[in-house]
Amino acid sequence: MDDEGAHLVAEVADCIQIGARNMQNYSLLKTVGKINKPVLLKRGMAATIQDLLLSAEYVLAEGNPNVILCERGLRSFDSTSRNLFDLTAIPVVHQLSHLPIVADPSHGTGRRDKVTPMGRAAVAAGADGIIVEVHPHPDRALSDGAQSLNAEQFGEMMRQLRRVAEAVDRQIAGAGAGVA
Amino acid sequence: MDDEGAHLVAEVADCIQIGARNMQNYSLLKTVGKINKPVLLKRGMAATIQDLLLSAEYVLAEGNPNVILCERGLRSFDSTSRNLFDLTAIPVVHQLSHLPIVADPSHGTGRRDKVTPMGRAAVAAGADGIIVEVHPHPDRALSDGAQSLNAEQFGEMMRQLRRVAEAVDRQIAGAGAGVA
Amino acid sequence: MDDEGAHLVAEVADCIQIGARNMQNYSLLKTVGKINKPVLLKRGMAATIQDLLLSAEYVLAEGNPNVILCERGLRSFDSTSRNLFDLTAIPVVHQLSHLPIVADPSHGTGRRDKVTPMGRAAVAAGADGIIVEVHPHPDRALSDGAQSLNAEQFGEMMRQLRRVAEAVDRQIAGAGAGVA
Amino acid sequence: MDDEGAHLVAEVADCIQIGARNMQNYSLLKTVGKINKPVLLKRGMAATIQDLLLSAEYVLAEGNPNVILCERGLRSFDSTSRNLFDLTAIPVVHQLSHLPIVADPSHGTGRRDKVTPMGRAAVAAGADGIIVEVHPHPDRALSDGAQSLNAEQFGEMMRQLRRVAEAVDRQIAGAGAGVA
User: Which residue of A has its CA nearest to D83?
Assistant: First the structure.
């Protein structure tokens, strides 16, 4: 993703995602700060929460107030999971910032069968939404198949998330995974 | 804690806790394996889940089947929290082992106002219980006051945990924090 | 640093440095791969050595063979040093790749009085060069003063590095810090 | 290793080694503090240097002044090496403490062909000695063979270390690896 790519994406997408490896690509952050689209900013794999908030400032300072933060897991010594999913980031961000924070249990765990329980945990911790990878045939996916749900698994996960959301006085709108 | 201490504790306590710094103290693990009391084995601060399960084997191999595992957070570069609370350990342990696993959001976060949301997340992830530090006057606690709840905060946390437990089809028994 | 910045730097500089935060900025890597200047590629703060070598491939694949790798320290839980200086990266890179690798003891330690001993260690481990921050008045430096040497300290360091270089059958050319 | 083991070892050994997993086994530290033998205290795999120095205090406080600290590598996300060898610990300990510090490039790297270059780096960083695993037939070793040198490799390493030691104004005494 570069400046030109950001403009191309903005023409067709509802939201521009800045991936973990670009969290401190300050040139790109400034570019998307000038585009009139929401920005999903993923936490870098060794970024502190302060680093994440400071990166968000580059977008905000250019005039784009619509930044959504995303916890997607940190690099770790334990290969049981793909990343170390730091859900404490959720209440920490809520204390330090007005920005919403969503969680990505697909990258956060890297294992299909861990996505639903950790999605539940994210909602219970107060996440403002989750992003999750879904594929009609995960085993044939060109990338990230090991962490993708199929349609049936996604439906079951959403059913479970609705119950947890209610238990923490949140509501899940429509068919998406946003929590209101 | 040493062998003599383990026997002293066993005389008066219902459960013997092996702290994170002793998770690989194999002599102590063998000692508590020969004592007829449940053992709460806390994960070391840089231990993989496999390390934790292998440590539990030292207790089990001596004939004590009552081992409870505990996630209490890993060492991290981000000082926002005292430790990096690895809740993915819960579904991972449930997949790999028959042993129950509880979570310690007090050590896992180190901050009083993060204990309740992360306790909720632990229950939503499937924890079989939580352990939490409570003190009548946390600010006067001799240790760990910053992560201790007072009685009122504890009551409020339990009220919230009950709702989350129901949402994941678990029940919280009596006044304690065990999840059935 | 972005594509435009890379071209501006290339007009006046002998070498283009890609900082740790841009190690996986693939668009920038491709851009400098098309510029006829040597590229100093710094390891990201949570990058494996394989990640570093794969990032170098983006530059090489565009036709620029002059890539110099740089170890500058990893993110760590111990705040005694600014970063965790991973000198084992030097023999590992020498085994896996034909590319030269230099070490940055200034960022690697973040403390002025640790730069010289860790510069010596880097040379002894086989580094093909070091990069070091020097300032006439480090206490007045606009950035990184705490890890900068003054001219006298730099001279003393170079005197020590020459002796270590000889002990490992390398030679230090001219006034710079390259090791031949 | 436990209290009884420490006394058994002390009967026959010149030095008692406390391994990384026991660095915070305070009962054991107190026990060896009362035995009249030097203690080699290895840094835990997620211990800060301050943690290491505080563990040494448990030995010193019992009256045993002969504590040797040892850097043996930290847990890391990069499986290229067995551990992440933190040689900056050497000048840091020299600044903060009067205690000697040695380095263990065998555990620090876990790979036979990395032991010699990282042994050289340790001496150049100012290590007061190194400990290294040697086996007549490393491929038949019951443990740690992958990081053990054979006799010929050990001889070659010592030849190289002597040259580096001279370059930093230290001398290697006799056949051992101590640096005076």
Answer: A77
Comparing CB atoms, the residue among B50, B95, B124 nearest residue A121 is B124
The Cα-based distances of A6 to A14, A38, A61, A132, D74 in angstroms read 12, 12, 17, 22, 40
| DSSP letter for each residue of D101-170 | EEE-HHHHH--HHHHHHHHHHHHHHT-SBB---B-SSGGG-SS-GGG-B-HHHHHHHHHHHHHHHHHTT-
Give contacts of A44 with chain D, Cβ < 8 Å.
Answer: none
Tokens describing residue A6:
């950001």
**pLDDT at C179 (0 to 100):** 57
The answer to whether the Cβ–Cβ distance between B76 and C77 falls below 8 Å is yes
Q: Assess whether pLDDT exceeds 60 at residue D62.
A: yes
Strands (E), chain C: 16-18, 39-42, 67-71, 101-103
Distance between CA D32 and CA D21 in Å, rounded? 16
Q: What pLDDT is attached to residue D3?
A: 83
Q: Which residues from C are below 8 Å from D when comparing CB atoms?
A: 46, 48-50, 74, 76-81, 84-88, 90-92, 95, 108-109, 113-114, 117-118, 120-126, 160, 163-164, 166-168
Q: How far apart are CA B105 and CA B111, in angstroms?
A: 9
The amino acid present at D143, given as its one-letter code, is S
Angle between helices B151-167 and A151-167 (to 10 degrees): 150
Mean pLDDT in residue range B66-85 = 96
Record: contact C164-D124, CB cut-off 8 A: yes
Tens-of-pLDDT digits for all 180 residues of chain A?
788 889 999 999 999 999 999 999 999 999 999 999 999 999 999 999 999 999 999 999 999 999 999 999 999 999 999 999 999 999 999 999 999 999 999 999 999 999 999 999 999 999 999 999 999 999 999 998 999 999 999 999 999 999 999 999 999 976 554 555
Q: What is the pTM of this model?
A: 0.94
Two tokens, residue C75: 């993110």
Structure-block tokens of residue C18? 């890609």
Element (H, E) at A103: strand A101-103
DSSP β-bridge partners for residue C102: C70
Is residue A103 within 8 A of residue A71, CB to CB? The reply is yes
- Distance (Å, rounded) from C-alpha B76 to C-alpha B87? 15
Residue B178 pLDDT = 52
CB D61 within 8 A of CB D31: no
Interface mutation target, options B25, B31, B76, B86, chain D, most CBs of D under 10 Å: B25
Question: Cβ distance B28 to B6 under 8 Å?
Answer: yes
User: Is C90's CB within 8 Å of D166's CB?
Assistant: no
Length of chain A: 180
What is the DSSP code string of C7-31?
HHHHHH-SSEEEPGGGTT-HHHHHH
Q: What is the pLDDT of residue C5?
A: 86
Are residues D116 and D130 in contact, defined by beta-carbon separation less than 8 angstroms? no
pLDDT of residue D1: 75
Phi, psi of B132 (to 5 degrees): -145, 140
